[in-house]
Amino acid sequence: MNADSSGTWQLVQRAGQGDHQAWSELLTRDQERLRRMVALRLDQRLQGRVDPEDVLQEAYLEAATHLAEYMQQPEMPFFLWLRGIAGNVMQAIHRQHLGTKMRDAHREVTLYRGMLPEASSAALAAQLLGKDTRPSEAAMRAERKILLQQALNTLDPMDREVLALRHFEQLSTAETASLLGIQEAAAGKRYLRAMKRLKDILLAMPGGWGEV
Fold it and tell me: What fold, for 6-103?
């Protein structure tokens, strides 16, 4: 069921009638959230080979092609529909570049198996560690990343995915519940539980972090 606000649906309708400004507004306001999703779920082996911005541009072209179909049967909010298209584009890119390597037994332990590419424990650990790559701290960073991956893999798979959606992609509780097919209250409880566990993990790390 489409849960968009009346303002969003009006923009969708205008875009469907050929209003380029309305279409641009729809894409621009969700661009950062989509970019975060791509950065989190694009296979790390493709870093430097695939630009997340190119993924988004291809997704936008695909969305424009299918906008009329969406308007006829809007079963989900526009942003989640657009996110799904971006996920499909990533899946195609993964198949193109990695092929059977995607099933390599040595790939990182992955999270919730949904329709989109999975957010691996390595990707989540990299997000938590940030982009500091000073040579003097390379060894400590590598050690922390391994410890974080191991700790994240101890979380319940659904809790890990809730963590990925809410904390890293910054989706709302309602959006998270819709994507996972669970009640909003359950999504909220899982997120609080996962965040508490994550904070405990970070505090126990060598040198310990207190902030998430």
Answer: Rna Polymerase Sigma Factor; Chain: A (1.10.1740)
Residues 114, 211: Cα–Cα separation, whole Å: 29
For the record, the structure tokens of 29 come out as 């306001």
Signed CA dihedral, 178, 183, 189, 194: sign only = negative
Any idea where the domains of the chain sit in the sequence?
A: 6-103, 121-203
Give the distance between the most distant pair of CA atoms in the chain.
Answer: 57
Considering the domain delimited by 121-203, tell me its CATH architecture: Orthogonal Bundle (1.10)
Angle of helix 173-180 relative to helix 78-98, nearest 10 degrees, comes to: 60
pLDDT (tens digit per residue) in 80-106: 999 999 999 998 898 888 874 544 433
What tokens does 191 get? Answer: 């997120």
Q: Is the pTM higher than 0.85?
A: no
User: Would you state the structure tokens that stand for residue 81, as one six-digit string?
Assistant: 């529909």
Residue 48 has pLDDT above 90, yes or no: no
